[in-house]
Amino acid sequence: MVKEESNTKVQPKSEYFDAAKNIRLVPRFCEKTVDKYFPQFEKIAHNLNWPKPYWTTMLQSVFEGKAAEIYSALPSEKSSDYDTVKQEVLKAYELVPEAYRQKFRSYKKFDSQTYVEFAREKEDLFDKWLTSKKTDNNFDNLRQLMLLEEFKQCVHLDLKTHLDDKTVGTIHDAAVISDNYTLSHKRSFKGQNVNTSSGNYKNQSTERTDSKPVAQNKSQSSL
């Protein structure tokens, strides 16, 4: 006779995370080094196996200044999502890719700086820009980043704003979005100046606007 198996199964012991006990291990938040804070926090959280749903609980205990204000202003469903909180805080401190790009491009040497110090600061700003864009030291990613920046500098301001609002990874994607935007708005931007607010180029049209024929050079021999 086969012995019937019991319907009662041993349930695995539920994991319990004591947030209050671990809060003391959360690194101190400093508004002057926000860009370095999140990688440091994430490294500690991974090493100590903190469940990600608790990360925002840990963060809010150390947030101060503008970060605390941003966190308090978020609705409950967003304030419990770590990636959303991180993005909103970085945005508040202007530590998003576009801000890094502008800082890198606009940074000039101070009279009190040596050229070595200036070069080091430029390099640091460039690295922050690349890191925020997650190029991962990949040549093709870097290539597309440079091409996209150049493309945006050559288009009209409202089109650039439209592209900035989109998640664009390649210059081809930017071109397709730009063509669709132009068609939907029934505009060609012909003869309009491109965005000049960030040192962008001015459109130099090569088309002739007059209807007069070009006079033939007298030095040319007649056929």
From TrEMBL:
Domain of life: Eukaryota
SUPFAM superfamilies with a match to the protein in the record: Retrovirus capsid dimerization domain-like (SSF47353)
One Pfam family hit: SCAN
InterPro entries according to UniProt: SCAN_dom, SCAN_sf
Identification of the protein by name: SCAN box domain-containing protein
Species in which this protein is naturally found: Mytilus galloprovincialis
Domain SCAN box: 97-186
Polar residues biased stretches: 190-204, 214-223
Ranges where the record places region Disordered: 190-223
